[in-house]
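To whoever picks this up:

The nightly regression suite flagged GST N-terminal domain-containing protein as changed. Nothing in the input moved, so I suspect the structure step. Input below, exactly as stored in the fixture:
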Amino acid sequence: MRSLILSTIPDTPGLDWDTLKALSAPTHPIDPANGPANAQSYLRLFGQSEKDVQVTLFRDLFAWCPYCHKVWLFLEEKKIPYRVQKVSMFCYGEKEAWYKKIVPSGMLPAIEIKGSIVTESDTIISRLEQEYGPLGPFPLMHPQLLSLRRLERSFFQAWCGWLCYKDDVRESSKAEFVAVLSELDNILSQSPGPFFQSEFSNMDTLFAPFFERAHASLYYYKGFDMFGDELNFPHLRAWNAAMQARETVRLIRADFFTHVHDLPPQLGGCVETGSAVQKACKQMVNKGPWSDLPDAVITDGIEDDLRKEAVRRVVKHKDAIKAVNPDQSNKQENFDVSLRIALSNLLRGSDYLPPLSGAGLGLRHLRNQISSPRDMSAGAANLLRQALERTAALDLSGGEPAALPVKHRRDQNSQPFQRTISSSVM
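Regenerated output under the current build:
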C-alpha cells in the first residue's frame, strides 16, 4: 500500500536526515508519562502527580524477561504510577553493580514500594494488590485462582518440555502441550467473555507473557501455531484476539523475530524439528514477509503512524546505528545514504529504490538487531524490517550478516544507545 506521507513529494532516492525527521513527526503530541504505553518511558503517571509516585519498577533493559513483562503489564493495566529503572540480563550484558547493591541476587523483576524492595513477579503483584487493589474480581493469591495459577505453571513446563528437546527424545511432549491447551480452552469456554474471568484481570496478565513467547517459539522451532485454525480451540483464539485488541497489550508486546532469537540463551537452547513446515515458518520469521505471520499487527488506519514511529526511532539513534554497522570500511558513507533510502522507501510505501552497492549487509544487520518493544512497537518493527529487507534485496552485490548467536546475545551492544537515555524518549 502506498503511504500518504510522501504523496506530495517526488520519489527522491534518499531524503536527508532533517527531512526524514520532519516527515516522521508524530501526528499528535506524545506524552510518555500519561499517554499510551511505551517501552522508552522512565516515568508513568496516568494523569497523577509525580510527587505521588510510590513504585519503582526494576525491569530488564531489553524488555525480554517474561516475568518483568508480567509486572509491567499489570502496572499499565491497573494504571499505577511508577518509575522505571532498567537493568541488564546476563545473556546480553553484565549486571549493573548499583542494582546488585539493591538486589544482591540480581534477580529480575523487582519493585521498590514505600521504601521496601520486593522480588519475584507473583509476590510483586500480590504486594501491589495489597496497596492498590486487585486487577479483576479476585486478588492473585485468592484460593479461587489457585487452579488457574497451577495451570499456568503446567503450561510453562509443557511448553519448555517440547521446545527445548528433540521430538524423538520426548515423543509425548507435543501431546502434553496440546493437552494443556485443551484444558485452557475448556476453562475459557466457561467464562462469560473472552478472558479468564468475567472481565480482564490479573489472570490474563499472568498468562500473556508466556502465551506470547510460546506462540512465537513453537511457530519458529516446531512449525506449530498454537492459535491456528487447524486446532479446535476457539476460546483460546478468542482470548488472543481480545488481548491483541487491547492497546496496552499491543504496545508492549514483542514480535516473533524478537522472541525467537532472545529465548535460546534464556532457556538453554531451543530445538528445531527440521520438517518442511517448520523450515518454512523459520524462513518467514527471519526473512518475511512479516505481514503474513500469525502475530502480524492489524495496521488498518494506523500504518502511516507505524511508519513514522519506525523512522522517528531510527533518526533519533542514527549515529549509534551507524557506529555498530558491521561494515566499517570505506563503504560507511554508502550505508548512511542507503539507510536513508530504506527509510524513504518505508515512508513512500511502494516503488522501492535500490541502495548503493554493498550496503545490503549493513541494512540486513540492522534488520536483525531491531528488538520490539525495546526499540519501537511490534507493528513498527515489522514494517521497518520489511523496508530494510526489500531495500537490501535490490543490492545485487548481496550480503548477509552472521547468524545471530544462540548461547548469548552479547551481539546486542546497548552502550552506544544509552548515551541518549535521559533525553526525550521519542
